[in-house]
């Protein structure tokens, strides 16, 4: 019997009987019909467990472990086509004093993976590129919500691009490899998650589209989900896609993610390590907890119900209560009280109080109803020397946007590996987002742009790119400086950026706006799978983002959606809540566009005096050498003497 089964399997795998002594095929019982099999390849000293995940488009994702980096806590290799990524994860065995999960994700693109040599002076990889930072954030947001509460052990996830074929983008592959590495390791983690990219072309869903297919798609959506069809992360750029098509794509993506999850579970069942025990942060005694609650809860309720507070006064009032509670506990208890754990407990009581008031009153801490927008005001053409400018104010969030127009030679050039994976050589429209410390009344070091600023700027750029004309003869640099921040500054950038572009005379198809939706949820006991009740909050404040369970940012025009980024802080969000959040955000952005249209509804037609001028002149072939001059001397002199740039001469 065993011999006949073995012969059939070897026939399926196309292995001749003559090499059976070198290969051992290990058969596993099927969990579902989607996971094909787990195989161990190699001789007795080098066996590589491997599992294949088929997708609806016929392309298979391969996950393997046990061959590379065996000193790491967990390691997995994922491959789609000829693109392969190795991900390792290591977590310290001693806790850190941090009150949040000290997780670091590093994704690096190696030029060698594409058969290239870096073109910098040292001919080696230097600091992370913008693409690497954005991909690291994408992976981080897919994994972080599933770490257990109180896990304060430093954890690092490193994604190493082994090979790239220029057809399959490695970012989604990296999410799946990281999920497998964590699942196989002994690190406590409530995964796995699965991730897919979803395209939409010719009214059809495309799962994990190739680079060519993606160039013809009006949607680039990345979905990360866990078991029971719970959404963990969403990231999208779209060409003004209709809402119903967008929701259809999300549902299809979540369904395909389940195949990846089942495959990782198969691999984990047979080759995963037992999860290590860990000690959460020190928790004060019950007597201390009750004292914190009795000393602070009623006072916190008064603060959160006082609608006259703004961001600063509310923060000062809560800080004063915190300081008073800590001082009283020092004098009331004879035993040593750990100040850090007491502060953490106070923050927990403050969060519980804030959230319970939303359910009790259906009114938010600033007096708004759940779906009400903050007061909005807009200004344009603030300074005459600027090509375009705007000031967008929403509540206590204030963003100043400027547009600078320059020649096509000023376009942003892409690095070699990004060029290969995205097919984009240069960008003639780009957005730079700045968040100085004074925006939140803080002092900080001003230096190179951070990961957060890059992420927010990239999201706002995705929200505006589809409405900007691709035939515009100039390079467009849109800058956004956050002058005041109390939530949703990236979405305020979309609104202010749209106004600044129209003020600069840049042709756009229609005005775009963005809004952030928050979530306050309740669960049945400690069960994180069954949501008992929830409240969606439109246009969230900074405190609602911090105290809540989600920051769901959506941008688009009145017609459709151009960008989405969902940061989910709970271990998965039901599809029903996602659909409602999209609908609520769509309604809100339409209202915001109506307000913006009162200031400026169309691209400025009357030219400004300082706008650049572009004119095309035809030089006869026989006179082109004379026109250019020796080594381009005439062109250089023309630039120095008149400021005119000559581009595109052939």
TrEMBL record:
Residue ranges occupied by any Exoribonuclease phosphorolytic domain in the UniProt entry: 58-188, 191-255, 372-507
Q: Does the keyword Heme apply?
A: no
Per the record's keyword annotation, is Transferase included, yes or no?
yes
Q: Which residues form a coiled coil?
A: none
Record-annotated Polyribonucleotide nucleotidyltransferase RNA-binding domain positions: 288-369
**Record keywords, A-Z:** RNA-binding, Transferase
The name this protein carries in UniProt is Polyribonucleotide nucleotidyltransferase 1, mitochondrial
- GO molecular function annotation: 3'-5'-RNA exonuclease activity; polyribonucleotide nucleotidyltransferase activity; RNA binding
Pfam short name (any one):
RNase_PH_C
Per the UniProt entry, what is one GO biological process? mitochondrial RNA 3'-end processing
Q: Which InterPro entries match?
A: ExoRNase_PH_dom1 (IPR001247), ExoRNase_PH_dom2 (IPR015847), ExoRNase_PH_dom2_sf (IPR036345), KH_dom_type_1_sf (IPR036612), PNPase (IPR012162), PNPase/RNase_PH_dom_sf (IPR027408), PNPase_PH_RNA-bd_bac/org-type (IPR015848), PNPase_PH_RNA-bd_sf (IPR036456)
> Which cellular component appears as one GO term in the record?
mitochondrion
């Amino acid at each position: 019997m065993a011999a006949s089964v073995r012969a059939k399997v070897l026939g399926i795998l196309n292995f001749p009987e003559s090499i059976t002594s070198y290969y051992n095929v290990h058969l596993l019982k099927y969990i579902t019909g989607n996971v094909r099999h787990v195989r161990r390849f190699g001789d007795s000293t080098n066996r590589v467990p491997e599992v294949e995940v088929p997708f609806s488009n016929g392309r298979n994702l391969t996950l393997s472990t046990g061959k590379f980096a065996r000193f790491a806590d967990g390691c997995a290799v994922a491959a789609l086509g000829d693109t392969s990524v190795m991900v390792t994860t290591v977590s310290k065995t001693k806790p850190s004093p941090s009150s949040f999960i000290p997780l670091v994700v590093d994704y690096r693109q190696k030029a060698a993976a594409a058969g290239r040599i870096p073109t910098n002076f040292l001919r080696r990889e230097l600091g992370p590129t913008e693409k690497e930072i954005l991909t690291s954030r994408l992976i981080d947001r897919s994994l972080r919500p599933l770490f257990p509460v109180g896990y304060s052990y430093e954890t690092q996830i490193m994604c190493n691009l082994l090979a790239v074929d220029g057809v399959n983008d490695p970012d989604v592959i990296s999410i799946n490899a990281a999920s497998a590495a964590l699942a196989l390791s002994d690190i406590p983690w409530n995964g796995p998650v699965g991730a897919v990219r979803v395209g939409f072309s010719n009214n059809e869903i495309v799962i994990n589209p190739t680079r060519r297919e993606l160039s013809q798609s009006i949607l680039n959506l990345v979905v990360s989900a866990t078991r029971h069809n719970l959404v963990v992360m969403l990231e999208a750029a779209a060409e003004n896609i209709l809402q119903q098509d967008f929701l259809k794509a999300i549902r299809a993506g979540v369904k395909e993610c389940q195949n990846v999850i089942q495959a990782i579970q198969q691999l984990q069942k047979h080759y995963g390590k037992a999860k290590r025990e860990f000690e959460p942060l020190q928790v004060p005694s019950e007597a201390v907890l009750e004292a914190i609650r009795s000393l602070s809860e009623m006072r916190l309720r008064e603060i959160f119900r006082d609608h006259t507070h703004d961001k600063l006064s509310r923060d000062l009032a809560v800080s004063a209560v915190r300081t008073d509670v800590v001082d009283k506990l020092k004098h009331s208890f004879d035993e040593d009280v750990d100040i850090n754990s007491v502060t953490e407990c106070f923050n927990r009581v403050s969060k519980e109080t804030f959230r319970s008031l939303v359910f009790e009153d259906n009114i938010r801490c600033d007096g708004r109803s759940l779906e009400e927008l903050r007061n909005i005001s807009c200004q344009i053409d603030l300074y005459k020397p600027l090509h375009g400018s705007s000031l967008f104010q929403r509540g206590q969030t204030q963003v100043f946007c400027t547009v600078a127009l320059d020649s096509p030679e000023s376009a942003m050039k892409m690095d070699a590996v990004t060029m290969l994976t995205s097919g984009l050589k240069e960008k003639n429209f780009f957005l730079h987002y700045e968040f100085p410390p004074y925006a939140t009344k803080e002092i900080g070091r001003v230096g190179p742009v951070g990961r957060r600023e890059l992420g927010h700027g990239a999201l706002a750029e995705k929200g505006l790119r589809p409405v900007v004309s691709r035939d515009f003869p100039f390079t467009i640099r849109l800058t956004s400086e956050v002058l005041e921040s109390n939530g949703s500054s990236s979405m305020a950038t979309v609104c202010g950026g749209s106004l600044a572009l129209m003020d600069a005379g840049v042709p756009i198809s229609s005005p775009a706006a963005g809004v952030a939706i928050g979530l306050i949820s309740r669960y049945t006991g400690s069960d994180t799978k069954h949501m008992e009740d929830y409240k969606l909050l439109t246009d969230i404040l900074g405190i609602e983002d911090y105290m809540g369970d989600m920051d769901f940012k959506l941008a688009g025009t009145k017609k459709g959606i151009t960008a989405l980024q969902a940061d989910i802080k709970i271990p998965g969000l039901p599809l029903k809540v996602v659909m409602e959040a999209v609908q609520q955000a769509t309604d809100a952005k339409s209202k915001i566009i109506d307000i913006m249209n009162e200031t400026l509804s169309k691209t400025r037609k009357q030219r400004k005096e300082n706008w650049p001028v572009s004119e095309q002149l035809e030089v006869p072939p026989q006179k082109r050498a004379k026109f250019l001059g020796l080594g381009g001397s005439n062109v250089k002199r023309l630039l120095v003497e008149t400021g005119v740039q000559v581009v595109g001469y052939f």
